[in-house]
Design goal:
336 residues; alpha/beta; eight-stranded mixed sheet; 10 strands
Length: 336
């Protein structure tokens, strides 16, 4: 009888240990060596130390596990537990997270800060309800049009062979609004696409264009922040639930701190990257007062079409519009 009890206790201890310890495999398309990757690695080392090795992270950078869509597929099969992923790739989990990606909806970083302080949690909760644990949302940056030929007006866009991310309905709708046939490619295929002429334009934040070497194959930059791009670390919620509650709290707190720092680092890096693109020789084109209303009209129409098609809810767009109207009426008052 004593032997049986001993075996039961040992079995319970082994089960408890397997439930409370986890080695998370995380992938990202970002190359190693970037400032944010260093922050991430420092953060997960700290989690390892604080949890006495119960929570570990193995990071696979530089698209070695494929693009964002491939990473999500490997999460479903259990090959990976999570990834640092561009928000647009997560639409099947929570379509309304695209609200920040709508064209020309932000005019400044101050507007971004005001809106995000009120709406980030809506996105985090929406993903949680659909099976993903996410952490502090991180700015990838305002995305600009980089092209081989000069673009200033909406008519100029119609001549482009423009890339869109695979599985990104917002990008597809925006491109179609300009009467351009979109050319979907995975991130690893874009450089070859530019080199061979399959595409002749990309819309990307400066840090992405530099890190992925796309800037070497374009000549012009349209100085108009077409889209706001953001990313996040997501973990499979069931997998995250396999560690103890205490370890969940510690892990969440430390990862939120890490990605909040990365959010600020990325903004500064984008400013430097923009200047680096100019120094590299890209010619900056600024739309004039006559062209801007046309760009804005196309953006409004594409948002209306997205709502009408059900790609994004009217509710989340209305919530965004209410906050942005409040801010624009009196930015000094609402910022306090």
């Amino acid at each position: 009888m004593k032997t049986t009890n001993g075996i039961l206790i040992l079995a319970m201890l082994l089960i408890s240990g397997s439930v409370q310890a986890k080695d998370y495999k995380i992938a990202t398309i970002s190359p190693d060596g970037l400032a944010w990757m260093k922050e991430f690695r420092d953060g997960v080392r700290q989690i390892d130390e604080v949890t006495d090795g119960r929570v570990k992270f193995r990071i696979y950078p530089g698209s070695v596990m494929g693009d964002d869509i491939t990473v999500l597929r490997k999460m479903r099969s259990g090959q990976l537990h999570g990834g640092v992923i561009v928000a647009g790739s997560l639409t099947r989990f929570y379509p309304d997270l695209q609200v920040y990606n709508l064209p020309l909806i932000f005019k400044s970083h101050e507007e971004v800060a005001y809106i995000r302080s009120r709406m980030d949690q809506i996105i985090i909760d929406g993903l949680h309800e659909n099976g993903l644990e996410s952490f502090y949302l991180t700015e990838t940056g305002f995305a600009y049009l980089l092209s081989k030929d000069p673009v200033k007006s909406v008519d100029d866009v119609k001549k482009l062979k423009a890339w869109i991310p695979d599985g990104d309905p917002i990008a597809a709708e925006l491109i179609k609004s300009f009467d351009v046939s979109p050319i979907p490619l995975g991130i690893p295929d874009i450089l070859a696409g530019l080199q061979t002429g399959i595409i002749d334009a990309v819309v990307a934040p400066p840090i992405a264009a530099l890190a992925l070497q796309w800037h070497n194959h374009v000549e012009y930059l349209l100085d108009l922040p077409l889209l706001y791009v953001y990313s996040m670390l997501v973990l499979d919620r069931k997998s995250f639930g396999k560690i103890s509650q205490d370890d969940q709290v510690v892990t969440r707190e430390l990862l939120n701190k890490v990605f909040k720092r990365i959010d600020g680092v990325n903004r500064l890096d984008n400013q430097k990257a923009f200047q680096a693109l100019v120094t590299h020789g890209l010619k900056v084109i600024t739309p004039g007062e006559k062209e801007l209303p046309e760009w804005e009209a196309v953006a409004r129409k594409s948002i209306e079409d997205l709502v009408a098609s059900g790609e994004i809810s009217a509710e989340i767009v209305n919530t965004f519009n209410r906050y942005i109207r409040d801010y624009r009426k009196s930015p000094e008052a609402v910022a306090q």
